[in-house]
Every structure is written in C-alpha cells, then in structure tokens.
Recover the amino acids of this structure.
RNA sequence: GGCGAGGUAGCUCAGAUGGUUAGAGCGCAGGAUUCAUAACCCUGAGGUCGGGGGUUCAAUUCCCCCUCUCGCUACCA
C-alpha cells in the first residue's frame, strides 16, 4: 500500500496547554496514532512519532489573567502534566516538544519570514476590534455576535457554529467582547493575511488526489472549498503579547496566529529529534506524512497547513489525515468547563497499572466513523467478558497447565493436523490485523487480534490436555507446546494495542525476544522450545459493580461541584453586561402575572402560547420554553412579566410581553423567576 | 418548519454495485467440561433490516412519501 514510501512521519495533534488530558483526547488521537506507530515498528518500518504542547494563543493568556499568574506558569503546569499523562499510558512518542521553546520560535519565525520574503502574504491595514476595558485587541474567538448569514445570535468571530460560515469578526452584527462584556471598538492595525482564495485550485488538486481519505475528512475538506464564496484570506498574525513575535519591521506587539505556529511544531519536534537529518523526514518525497487529529482540526490540517507548506516550497504534504470523530461520556459531550470528563491521571489513581484496560476499551469503541459513547458499564463488561474471560484466561490456563504438566518449560509443539491448523491461525489473524491497521480500521484490527485468543481457548477445549495427561504425557506436552506458541504470538499481536500486557506475557514466557509481523507470518516457534517459564500472574482483574458505581458517582459529583473558577476554559459564565444607568432601568414595567392557560404553538418547537392575568388586563404572551415545560406544568404559576415590551408577532400570533426566565449555565435548563410569598397578581417589581 | 446525520437481533454495532438460509461481540437459555479469575467450549432461541408506496423477474439494499431519534436552526431567556 505504502510501498513507494521508505519511512513514515506520524504526528499527533498538539494538545492545547490549558487543561489536562482526558479520555476523549486519548481515544480520538493519541491512542490510534500510538497503535499505528507501534504497528509500523513491528513491521520493521522506519517511523518517527512526534507531538508536543501547543502553548500559545489567547485562551492561555486569559486563563493566566484569571488566575493572576503569567502565561508561562500556565503552560509549564500543563505541558508537564500532559506529557507525563501521555507517557503513563504508553503513548510512545519519539519526541514530545513544546511551542514556547526557543527552538520552535526560531522555526516558526523563519518559516514566516520565508513566506513574507516571497511575498505570499498580503499586508492589510484593517480595523480590528479592541476591548477598551481589557485594553487589548480581541481574538476572533472572544467576540460574539449575530451571524450575518443565518442570524444566529451567538456566532463567534471566526466561525458560526450554526451555519458553518467562516467569518471575520467585523462581519458580526452587534459584537460583544466575551472578556469584559464591553462593546468592542474598531481600531486600525496592520496584519498579514494568507490569501487562501488564490490557492484554491492547488488545494483542490491536492485534496482530490487523495480520494482514499476517510469520507468525513475528504467530504468536509472539499465542502470548505465549495462553500459559499470559497476560501477567504485569513490573517496569520495577531495583536497579542504571548506567542512568536512577527519577524517584520513595524510589527511590534504582534505575534503569529496560533494556528500558523502550532502545526510548525511538528517540524520543530522533528528537528529536535533528528538533528541534521530532519530534512529527510520533512522534504524527501519518499517520506510519508500522516497526521492524527480529532475532527475539529480537519480544516487546518487539510487546508491551511498544506497551503502554508506549498507556498513555502520544499516540504512534503500530508498523505493521510485519519481524523476521528468525538467520544461522548455516559451519553453527554465531554466538557472541561462542566467537568464532565475522565482525566487520565484520575483514571490511573483509581485503576493503577490498568492502562491497557482503558486502551482496549477505547480502541474497541473508537469513534472512527461517527461519534461514540463511552460508558462505565461498557468498560466493565468489556474488561470482564473479553479481557479477563477470553485473553487473560487463556494466558493463565496455559501457564498453569505448563507448570503442572510440563515442568515449567516450553514443550515442543505437536504436528497433528489440528495442531498445525491452530498454529496457522497466527499467520491468518496477524495478516488480518495488519491489513486492518494499514487501513486505519482500529476496531476491526482489535477484533481480529481477540479472535486469535479465541482460537487458543477452543484448541485447549478440543484437545483437553488435562485428559490426555492421564494416559499420554507426550501428547499432553505437544498440545501445550502449541498453546504456548499461541500465547507467545498473542503477545506480539496485541503489542500495539496493549503494550504493557504484551510485555507481561513475555515475562511470563521467560522473556523471549520481541517479534515482528514478519515472524508472525511464519510457522514459529515464537518462543524457543525449552525456555524456562516465569511466574504466572493474572493479566487482568475483574472489575466489580461497586467500582463502576463509584466511577459514575464520582463523575456526577465532580460535575455537580463544577468548580468553574478552577477549570473554566471554554464556556464561562456570561460576562457582565455594560453598565447602565437607573434611568435606563426605570422604564421597565415588571410585574407579577398569573398563567391562566397554556398551549403549544403549532410548527414551533420552542414556543408556548400563554394567557396571562396581569391584574390590569388579560393578554397573550409567547414564550420560548416549550422544550423545558409542558403546558400543564405552567398553568397556575405566578411569573414575572415584562409588561411594556413592544408587541411582536411570531407564527401569526402577537406576543404582548415577555416572561423572565433564568438560565442555568451548568445544565442549560430554563427556570422561572418566581415571586416569593403571596404577592398578589399585578404587583410591580423594581 | 429548515439543514445534517441516523433508525439492521435484548444491548453495542458490521454488511449488502439489489439475487440462494441477513452477520459479529456481549446478554439470555440449554448442554458439555473442570486446566482456568463460575471463566472456557458446543448448541439454541431471538430480526416483517423504522412504516408505506414505486421501479424490478427480484429490494432490507435504488427512488419518493411518512414516522421516530440525535445535533444545529427559525422563531422573547
């Protein structure tokens, strides 16, 4: 498949240094990349595997500001935390770098300078939004407003998540700073833009030359080229003081856009790893470049980064970008801000030494083609009925039988037809595993590996050495010889998926040499006959109901406690709105009203039509609460009504006022604001 | 209402350029067995492949309509 390539450079998305690593990161990116790399090494191919912390960008400066520390302190904290967590799970990077290093600053700076000197960028003086209260220019992500295309009222400055439009902050209607809540003001500044629109044809040629990409990657990438007006120029610099300074005269106070500098971290990491030889890995067309990422990164790795590489010249382009979808947790999206996550360091504290159980379960439910759900019940079941019952049990019974009947040494395998058939399964299954992994089908590959353990269990049941031992010692040893070879092969077949367990199997087998997939394609032996076996130990432990229950309880407790000030990164509480005067407040006529009737509005999912008694009149008010309350739930409630709001017609019905509701930021649920005590209908609120 | 994705065994999912008895793992039932973490091995039950219509010799697979689920959206939080 990749025969024209001599070596493979594998990158895993640089994790952003503003929080720890959770199970979604592992399943989406780090685990598949690690499995792939380990597999390639087992095939004897030359591979380099790099990653590192992504440490720039405004989100980090904001977190630092919030905690009253420097950005450096933030990135140091998470850089080491992430690096260690990934290492603890056996993610075998050849090098883990970081973008705040001097080396990376030079790489990014030089890369930018080269493009600049080539005249690739278009310098544009533009009016950018500036937050007068926070005294800084605002990153796209920190401005919200109404989308000009679909009128969504919470579009971000770079993108509208509702209609998918790519935006510039100035496109937004009614912009607001999410830093201070202030209305940002326009201020002139010069930035350097990458005219992606000019590169559309090249990009299209590049992408359509890769129809083998996964449908989600290929489709989404092309849709960016085809969408609306096509690609738009993007600014590659920002007005910010944390990042790689723009290496251009007159660019003081500006840094490279984090999405410009982050992918270059892959280059820095290879330079640090390979020294002088780095160009072999980045510029020789016989090197295959593979990016493992989550689906949120597709556009940058398939459009922006290739465009940069093309314009620079001399670099190879990504040949494969096997992006995964997202992993949910117990039916809900993982969320750092809501603390709905399983952190890697937490998992290891509760399940010490059981990295492979999580690696196995996450591989078996990997979101390869669509979003998937991780549940603790599934985790328990897969551990108990697959790892313990099928794989662990086989290894254990072979060990025990060997010690019992064969003096603890590896016996010579038999050569009856059924013996040869069982041994042949190694070549067959390992070939299937190999084929699936070459195609980035990790779930399927894992299933083929587990099938080999099933072959072993069936072989033992069929041959029953505990029976033959009563009459035929030679046959007994022959059977166990076959079974032991299968176990040795299993260590190799599972190596890429569960390296810790594979190593433990090898230790139990007396430390045979590590195998390659070429070895597995043969007929063995995979552990030398006569080798003295080591101590037998259980490979996997059963997981009991109370452990699973404890994990679920922990998850919900952490979510409920939701220490937003500690973990908040993406969806903070709504910022304080701009100051108003009493004179601006006074005109509001707020009063207590009683809901007399309520009914759903046809063809509107959210609207309830309410009939209210305000004390002075009866009126109809439409309220967008149908998703949270049934009509019968609201009849008889006393509510707070904004009574002098101008009437507005929706769905052909005139709404005469507005009910006040509170929005629970944790759950997103609406709640009534209710008058305390026995306030009469018509009472005013001030 | 609109856009997108999807509805295949109790559960999680494969699959089918349309063509003999639609698959896997788990779960369940029965059997066998005892080397093994009551695990393993065998057998079985269980599906009108969401519903209806169309094209076709033949559709679960193609087309249309409907329905339900999920995400987002239009609609005063």
């Amino acid at each position: 498949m990749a025969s024209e390539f001599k070596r493979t450079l594998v990158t895993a998305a640089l994790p952003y240094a503003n929080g720890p690593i959770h199970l979604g990161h592992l399943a989406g990116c780090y685990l598949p990349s690690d499995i792939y790399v380990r597999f390639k090494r087992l095939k004897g191919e030359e591979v380099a595997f790099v990653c590192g912390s992504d440490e720039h960008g405004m989100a980090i400066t904001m977190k630092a500001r919030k905690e009253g520390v420097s950005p450096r302190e933030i990135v140091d904290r998470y850089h080491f935390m992430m690096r260690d967590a990934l290492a603890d799970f056996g993610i075998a990077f050849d090098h883990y770098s970081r973008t705040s290093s001097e080396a990376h600053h030079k790489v990014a700076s030089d890369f930018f300078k080269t493009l600049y000197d080539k005249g690739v960028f278009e310098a544009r003086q533009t009016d950018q939004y500036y937050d007068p209260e926070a005294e800084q220019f605002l990153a796209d992500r920190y401005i919200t407003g109404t989308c000009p295309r679909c009128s969504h009222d919470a579009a971000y400055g770079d993108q509208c998540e509702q209609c998918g439009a790519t935006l510039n902050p100035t496109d937004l209607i009614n912009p607001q700073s999410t830093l201070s809540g202030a209305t940002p003001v326009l201020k002139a500044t010069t930035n350097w833009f990458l005219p992606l629109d000019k590169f559309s044809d090249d990009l299209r040629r590049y992408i359509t030359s890769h129809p083998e990409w996964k449908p989600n990657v290929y489709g989404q990438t092309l849709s960016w080229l085809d969408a609306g007006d096509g690609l738009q120029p993007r600014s590659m610099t920002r007005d910010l003081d944390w990042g790689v300074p723009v290496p251009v005269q007159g660019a003081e106070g500006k840094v490279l856009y984090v999405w410009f500098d982050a992918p270059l971290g892959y280059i820095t990491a290879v330079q640090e790893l390979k020294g002088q030889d780095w160009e072999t890995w980045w510029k020789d067309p016989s090197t295959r470049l593979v990016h493992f990422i989550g689906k949120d990164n597709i556009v940058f790795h398939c459009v922006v980064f290739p465009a940069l590489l093309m314009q620079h010249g001399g670099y190879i382009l990504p040949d494969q970008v096997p992006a995964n979808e997202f992993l949910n947790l117990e039916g809900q999206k993982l969320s750092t801000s809501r603390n709905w996550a399983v952190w890697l360091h937490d998992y290891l504290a509760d399940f010490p030494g059981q990295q492979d159980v999580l690696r196995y379960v996450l591989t078996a439910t990997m979101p390869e083609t669509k979003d998937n759900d991780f549940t603790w019940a599934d985790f328990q079941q897969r551990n108990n009925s697959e790892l313990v019952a099928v794989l662990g049990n086989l290894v254990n019974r072979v060990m025990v039988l060997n010690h019992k009947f064969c003096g603890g040494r590896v016996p010579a395998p038999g050569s009856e037809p059924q013996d040869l058939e069982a041994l042949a399964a190694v070549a067959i299954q390992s070939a299937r595993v190999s084929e699936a992994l070459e195609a980035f089908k990790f779930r399927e590959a894992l299933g083929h590996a587990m099938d080999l353990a099933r072959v072993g269990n069936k072989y033992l049941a069929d041959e029953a050495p505990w029976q033959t031992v009563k009459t035929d010692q030679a046959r007994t040893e022959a059977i166990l010889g076959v079974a032991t070879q299968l176990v040795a092969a299993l260590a190799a077949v599972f190596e890429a998926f569960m390296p810790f367990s594979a190593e433990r199997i090898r230790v139990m087998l007396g430390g045979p040499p590590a195998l390659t997939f070429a070895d597995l394609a043969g007929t063995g032996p995979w552990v030398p006959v006569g080798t003295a076996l080591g101590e037998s130990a259980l490979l996997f432990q059963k997981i009991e109901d109370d452990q699973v229950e404890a994990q679920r309880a922990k998850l919900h407790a952490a979510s409920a406690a939701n220490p937003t000030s500690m973990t908040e990164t993406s969806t903070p509480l709504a910022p304080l709105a701009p100051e108003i005067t009493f004179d601006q407040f006074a005109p509001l006529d707020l009063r207590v009203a009683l809901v007399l009737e309520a009914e759903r509005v046809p063809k509107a999912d959210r609207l309830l039509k309410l009939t209210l008694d305000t004390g002075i009149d009866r009126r109809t008010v439409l309220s967008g609460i149908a998703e949270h309350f049934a009509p019968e739930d609201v009849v008889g409630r006393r509510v707070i009504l904004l009574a002098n709001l101008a009437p507005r017609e929706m769905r052909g019905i005139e709404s005469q006022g507005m009910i006040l509701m509170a929005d629970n930021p944790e759950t997103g649920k609406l709640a009534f604001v209710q008058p305390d005590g026995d306030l009469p209908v018509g009472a005013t609120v001030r």
Remarks:
- The longest strand of chain A covers residues 590-600.
